[in-house]
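anyone seen this seq b4? input:
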Amino acid sequence: MTQVRAASLTNYSEVARASGLDPVQMLHDVGLDPNVLRQPDLLIPVERVTELLHISASKSGNESFGLCMAESRQLSNLGAVGLLIRDQASLRDSLNVLMRYQTLINGALSFMLEESAGLVVIREDLSAGKAQQSTRQRIEMALGVTLRLMREILGEAWQPRRVCFEHAAPRDLSVHHRLFGHRVEFDYEFNCIVCTRADLDARNASADPAMVRYAQQLLDASPKTGGATVHGDVRRTILLLLPSGRCTIEQVSDHLGLVCRTVQRRLDEHGQPFSSMVNEIRKELAMRHVMEGNRPLTEVAMMLGFSAPSAFSRWYLGQYGCSAKESRAKRDAKGRAAMAP
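predicted toks r here
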């Protein structure tokens, strides 16, 4: 079961109350003890966090619920990792620390930097685990938290070149514009923040090497709960590489800096071969993009890493016993029936 730190729910109570919800009751409804809000280092199931944010947004009508939670986040909310991130010499160093310790913060987060022609694309995605609810709230919160991190290094006035989301735009964009600025795009191929290489390498004026040493000592002395594993690293890399069509075990191994045979052996030891893991992630993404979204199915095929729509159609039929078009028709019919008087 994938887990995240309870600190992922920082500001939940405040945003819930401001949105007209009872936070204690909402937590009980998804099987979470309200005391988790006072235990930031406690690990809780990602499925329950996904469900909590999804139903909170639905019941309150606040489509930007997760983003509102991110608005006032600080690096201190990440514990010792946050201290280590805050006092690095540059933003690049800070993001490298975030990637190194991401499993201690959020085991469901996939994070990758891509650089080209002076621009840097910071890609993020989230596993929903077995949850059927949309990951929209969690991914908006994740990108919002990353932006808050970047502004702690680059200054509050800093603006990204672009911020892109896979999902459709909400009716009200005011929260997105308030946090990200006006260069926000939706229905994009992946979730990302775009900045310049100069931003990434700008020196952190408030960097404190003594604090870095202290934070590193705290991390070294702490139990390695939820530490990185090859299995988890492979899963996160597949999630990010699938839409590019570059998702063979050789390419994933190369991205991780490991020998292909080593990766294959570790996956075999875990009891899940590479092809099985790819199929599992494709099913998760199919649920997200076929049943929860309205993208053209040709685009969905590309996002799941298929070279042609026909290959996606055959795969979908084999997995679900019907076509993706039929699945959407059933979904839409069910939605119309629910809205009927």
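Residues 230-339 form a domain with the Arc Repressor Mutant, subunit A fold (CATH 1.10.10.60). Strands lie at 3-5, 43-45, 109-116, 119-126, 162-164, 184-185, 191-196. kinda curious what u guys think
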